[in-house]
Design a protein that fits this description.
Number of strands: 0
CATH topology: 434 Repressor (Amino-terminal Domain)
Helix content: 55-70%
Order of helices and strands: HHHHH
Number of helices: 5
Shape: globular
Strand content: under 5%
CATH architecture: Orthogonal Bundle
Largest sheet: none
Number of domains: 1
Radius of gyration: 11 Å
Length: 67
């Protein structure tokens, strides 16, 4: 079983993009990306759709293994 944050981090790393660069692409802060990846905060629906676009991924990949 995995978490949304773990999946996000793994996909971001597969895309070889740093938290800081990802934050810039998302128009947010590196701290917010870290909070998403540590499961402290869930992204809004708007940000979720943007994550999918920026990382060229799918909702299914982001939520794989989450129960």
């Amino acid at each position: 079983m995995s978490t949304f944050g773990e999946n996000l981090k793994n996909i971001r790393k597969l895309n070889k993009i740093s938290q800081n660069d990802f934050a810039k692409e998302m128009s947010t802060t590196q701290q917010r990306v870290s909070e998403w990846e540590c499961n402290k905060v869930e992204p809004s629906l708007y940000n979720l759709m943007k994550i999918i676009k920026v990382l060229n991924t799918t909702f299914e990949e982001l939520t794989d293994g989450i129960e």
